[in-house]
Amino acid sequence: MPDLFSKFDPLIGEREALLETGLTDPFNLVMEKVESPTVAICNGKRTILLGTYNYMGMTFDPDVVAAGKKALDDFGSGTTGSRVLNGTYAGHRAVERALRDFYAMDHAMVFSTGYQANLGVISTMAGKDDYIILDIDSHASIYDGCALGNAQIVPFRHNDIEALEKRLRRLPPEAGKLVVLEGVYSMLGDVAPLKEMVALSKAAGAMVLVDEAHSMGFIGEHGRGVAEAQGVIDEVDFIIGTFSKSVGTVGGFCVSNHPKFEILRLVCRPYVFTASLPPSVVATAATSIRKLMDSADKRAHLWENSKRLHAGLRQLGFRLGTDEPQSAIIAVIMPDLETGAAMWEALLNEGLYVNLARPPATPAGMTLLRCSLCALHSEEQVGEILGMFAAAGRATGCLS
Ligand SMILES: Cc1ncc(COP(=O)(O)O)c(C=O)c1O
């Protein structure tokens, strides 16, 4: 009988070989206690968190936590139902109002995760005879949304304006087209040239979706993302986002100004055929989103942190994903998986947690140590982090 698991044998072999060297499993870490958005206890040791995407540090905000507790008392632990049946509570409407206010847009639809928001909106908007034109480095949820909808997929080279233009030119003018872009690409932390790309897409008659998962709350004057920062937010048809990063909880959403947007609530399968978010989650999200509207000081501090860490790592001699800091993600490029895993463990032993990222999640087969900064990291913590990188770099031979 064929074993359906046999296709995973190469991965199982690679993983076993890595663990046989005595290395801690980088994909199985337990946070024994989380003290704040920037510190946790891991393996009994105080550990600075530098790989959580908790960009604005909202997870322990007292107002956010209080809103969640109150909703738990008032509405119970879960809705046990779909948004279109028994799963829309006052809190779901309230968080959608908060999103409309945050983005100054007409419509907002909340999904149970950002993954489902991409899955739902992309698969529902672009069907069998339509085209999806997407950056080749798009997030897995974007690719999975394409697969679910059966549209023709036209990838173009990462952040390459000319490549996008060429692809658009070759498509039949009368065909339905959806261009899918991200504000910040999460592997290298680089920003998309949305100004040019949105203009080209619109000129070619395409609708545009921008996933702003890694920019919400931080980039742009009001924290609306890269589309806001580059002055094209009014031309974007759909913005996708998540509550699992700057908002500090879990959930996903799409905001739009399209007059027919609300019909998606009836036709979008990943919205209809799943239970809605628990009342405590939507209450924390609504409170957090409203506070993010008024967080210019935190945004400024987060930029300072990103610049400080980027400059410090460069000075130490590490190879980074971008020449300048473009977001709150700073990717340290490792020569190979073995060195990356050794460096990851050495950092953990120093008391620092970062994300180890490897193919297929990473572009061009790279192994990365992905650092994501938080607005609540202090200047001293960034200094401590740099000291840990220096020590771990020397211990593993990454730095001479
Ligand atoms: C670009 C991008 N889109 C969507 C998602 C999915 O978000 P969520 O965690 O809410 O499912 C992520 C999460 O990693 C992401 O990086």
Features:
400 residues, alpha/beta, Aspartate Aminotransferase, domain 2, four-stranded mixed beta sheet, 14 helices, 16 strands, 40% helix, globular, binds pyridoxal-5'-phosphate
Question: What is the secondary structure topology, with strand pairs?
Answer:
Layout: H1 9-20, E1 33-36, E2 39-42, E3 45-49, H2 62-75, H3 90-103, E4 107-111, H4 114-125, E5 131-135, H5 140-149, E6 152-156, H6 161-170, E7 177-182, E8 184-185, E9 190-191, H7 194-203, E10 207-211, H8 226-229, E11 238-242, E12 252-256, H9 264-267, H10 269-272, H11 279-292, H12 296-316, E13 329-334, H13 337-350, E14 352-353, E15 355-357, E16 367-372, H14 379-396
Parallel strand pairs: 3-14, 5-6, 5-7, 7-10, 10-11
Antiparallel strand pairs: 1-2, 2-3, 4-12, 8-9, 11-12, 13-16, 15-16
Helix pairs in contact: 2-11, 3-11, 4-5, 6-7, 12-14, 13-14
The chain binds pyridoxal-5'-phosphate.
Summarize the structure.
This protein has 14 helices and 16 strands. With 400 residues, the chain is α/β, with parallel strands linked by helices.
Question: What this model shows, in words?
Answer:
It is a single chain. Helix 5 links the parallel strand 5 and strand 6 (152-156). The protein has 14 helices and 16 strands. It has helices at residues 9-20, 62-75, 90-103, 114-125, 140-149, 161-170, 194-203, 226-229, 264-267, 269-272, 279-292, 296-316, 337-350, 379-396; strands at 33-36, 39-42, 45-49, 107-111, 131-135, 152-156, 177-182, 184-185, 190-191, 207-211, 238-242, 252-256, 329-334, 352-353, 355-357, 367-372. It is an alpha/beta fold and 400 residues long. The model has no long low-confidence stretch (mean pLDDT 96). Bound molecules: pyridoxal-5'-phosphate. Residues 113-115, 118, 139, 141, 182, 186, 211, 213, 242, 244, 252 line the site of pyridoxal-5'-phosphate.
